[in-house]
Structures are given as C-alpha cells and as structure tokens.
Amino acid sequence: MKIKFCGAAREVTGSAHLLTLDNGYKILLDCGLYQGHSSDYKSFNENWLFDPAEIDCLVLSHAHIDHSGRLPKIVKDGFKGNIISTHATRSLCAIMLLDSAHIQEKDAEFYNTRILPKKRKKGKDVSYREPLYTKDDVEVTMDRFVGYPYNQWFRINEDVEVLFKDAGHILGSASVTLRIRENGETKMFGFTGDVGRPNRPILRDPQRMPEVDYLICESTYGGKDHEAPPAEMDHFLRIIKETCVERKGKLIIPAFSVGRTQEIVYMLDQLETAGKLPKIPVYVDSPLAVNATMIFGTHPECYDKQLHEYLLIDDNPFGFNSLTYVRKVEVSKSLNNRTEPCIIISSSGMMNAGRVKHHLFNSIDQDKNTLLIVGYCSPETPGGKLRSGAEEIRLFGEMKPVRARIEIMDSFSAHADRNELLDFVEHQKGKLKTLFLVHGTIERQEKFRDMLNENGFGDVQIPQLGESIKLD
C-alpha cells in the first residue's frame, strides 16, 4: 500500500491523506478546506491531487472545517462512497458545512457584485466566481454519512476494519486505526486526527490508540508548551477584571464556534457559579456557536467525569443569568455601539471572517479594550498579525491603529502541546516502523521530530504536499 499526502503537509489546514491498498481500494482520511490567503494555496480548495470518483471510502476524524470543509466539493466532483465518522461528528457537520456553504455563496456574491465590475471597468478580462459548493450540495453530502461509536471495530470492506478512539479534541473527534489484511498479512495503520489535551473541560481525555505499524500524527504545537490550570483560570479572571472592572472596557474573544466557544462559556459558568465573575454582560455573538452549543447538549456521551459531576449542581453548564446568545445581526451590530463593559465571544477564531471582524474594527483602536487570542492563527490572517505584534491592521479597507491590549492564552487550545503529543504516542515505539508528521508548520515539525528522535523514535518523516510514499 502507499500513502499520498494531499493536504496539511507542512501546513496547519486542509487535512487530507490518501491511502491506496495493493488491490486498488482507496481510503481518504479527512477532506479539509484550506483556510487562509497564502498564494501557494490559492487554488488548493478548487483542485484535487487525486480523482474524487476513484475514492472508495472517506473516513473523517472530526468536524472542524480544516478537516471536513471540502466534503460537499468532493461529492459534487464525483465521490460516491460513504463518509465514515462518529455520531457527534455527523451532528456537527450538519450545521458547520451549511455555515461554510453560506460563506462560499456570500463570498461569490460579493465578488461578482462589488469586485468584478470594478475590474472589468479597468479593462481586465475576468469571469464570474462560483461558490465552491452550495447548501444544496451539503444536503446531498449529509446523506452519505454513516455514524459509528467509539471503541468498536467495524468493517468498511472485506479487508479493512476501522476503530475510532476518543481524541479529546472537540465533540466527536476521533483518532482512526485501520486494520488491513493484505497479501496474507495484517497491517495496522493509524491517523491521530487532531489530538486534544488531558484534563481539559467538557471532553474526556484523549484515549491512546492501538499499536500500529505506520502513524500519521498531527504536530500543531510540536514545538510549544501550554499553560496549565489552575494558572489558566486565574489568568483568565485577571484579564476579565483588568479590562471590564478596572478599565471599564470590552473584552473581545475571537473563538472558533465549535469547541473553543463552549469551553470559554463553561469556564465563565464555573466562575459565575463560584461567585467570582464580575457582574457584567456576556455575549456569544455567533449563530453557528449557538447551534453548536445545542448539539453539545445532545451528546453527553462525550462529556468527561468532571462535567457529569458539575451537572449535579448546575443543569446548564452553557448558560447563566448574564449570558446572552446572539443570533440576529441587528443585535450583533448594536453591541458595537454600547460603551458599557462587557465580554463578547465571537467567531471566527482567526479574525479573518464573521462578526468578530466588526467588533475588532470598532474596538481595536481604544486602549481600554482587550483582545484575547485563545488559539492558533495563520500568520497572514488578522489574528496572526496581531499575535506577531502588529501596530496597525487593515480591516474593511481601512488601516486601524492597534491601541487595545493584546492578550494571548494558548492554554485554551484544543491541540495537545509537544509533551502531551509525546505522551500520546509514547507506547507506539515498539511496533512502529514510520511516523509521519502533518498538520504543523515546518519549524514546529522539525522541533518535534528532534524531540521524538531523542526519545527513541526512529524513522520520523515530514512529508511534502503531494508526496507519495510506498509502505512495506
């Protein structure tokens, strides 16, 4: 068999890995959308490094768009097999892919009505832009999903069995283990998906995978350590008090609608229950986050022991008196005109789309406000530039000075850090032949590779996009 790396190779987005068995059976692991504006990946989302019609089965690790976001595109382009996932992943994809389609449609509409006429007026020969996929394509795609539980081997064809183990990353996230029979031998192939962190709120800790011969491993934070609780909770509360109580400002928290938003809300709920949260309004300004939070409530099988115990004293861990979930755009816009202290949690996490850009535009130039970055941001996005210390930033065509405080708390990340990743794969050393690092920048991958080598791992490779490797 051979593996071809079709996305998230030396990059932190666009996950897709093609496994081709000796009998020609093709399994695609993930089908993610590239998120960002790098010129190298300008056409990534529109093109394939394989023929979609030749893929027999697609196994999805979790619902984040950089892992699932091209599913409607691949179905549209000829894929006719099943999409295999956990039950919770299917539930989340139902809303996340619709949201993604809405963005594709709006982006195409904006380009065709606002940008294209200006280019044609200048004499440029440009064509109308089509959305990558539409809401109708999503509806067809969801019919292809087949859900399975954790910790149960199931067969996708006569030679291949699959096992999902809880990856502890987001609701429904899973590592994928394939038990493959080829030429009279049984080979074990593993894909970590995105690995979560132990002792995090809401979700269970990541479960170790079975020992495998070959492993594809994420490396998002392969060169970094995270802050640990209780320092994290104290740090978070200090930022809230300094911004909203002492400076009377707004605390803007750009957060991914699925996972990160629910974790932040749960922490605020705990602070409110303990009587520590200042009496200030809190807004979750994201329709997708509102829908996702409802889905979190329908999948308690994914909760950790701590949350189950917390439910005994608070039957709604994602709601408290001063919390408002915002759906209507008119209410969202009104938040920009309010001057009283508040906390606004809004998507997107990288600040390159969504309602948070408007909050950023109206708050970034006031020194009483704070922008709290709680996760990875691609370098070319507004979030990435602010993480790097930008003194001004372009928003909606206008340069805005950065006067608000910029705080960073990577401890909120749903990705394991280097030591947590090492612990997750430590037991693989005995059987493992080759470990492939994906879903990380080359700098962090190289640091993590060195760390793995120092800890007894032999063949650790960092594949390039499009590279195919024959597996013994």
Automatic annotation (TrEMBL):
SUPFAM superfamilies: Metallo-hydrolase/oxidoreductase (SSF56281). It comes from Flavilitoribacter nigricans (strain ATCC 23147 / DSM 23189 / NBRC 102662 / NCIMB 1420 / SS-2). It holds the Pfam family Lactamase_B. Residues 261-386 form the Beta-Casp domain. Residues 13-232 form the Metallo-beta-lactamase domain. GO terms for molecular function: hydrolase activity; RNA endonuclease activity. This is MBL fold metallo-hydrolase. PANTHER family: CLEAVAGE AND POLYADENYLATION SPECIFICITY FACTOR FAMILY MEMBER, INTEGRATOR COMPLEX SUBUNIT 11. InterPro entries: Beta_Casp (IPR022712), MBL (IPR050698), Metallo-B-lactamas (IPR001279), RibonucZ/Hydroxyglut_hydro (IPR036866), RMMBL (IPR011108). Transmembrane segments: none annotated. Keywords: Hydrolase. Gene3D superfamilies: 3.40.50.10890, Ribonuclease Z/Hydroxyacylglutathione hydrolase-like (3.60.15.10).
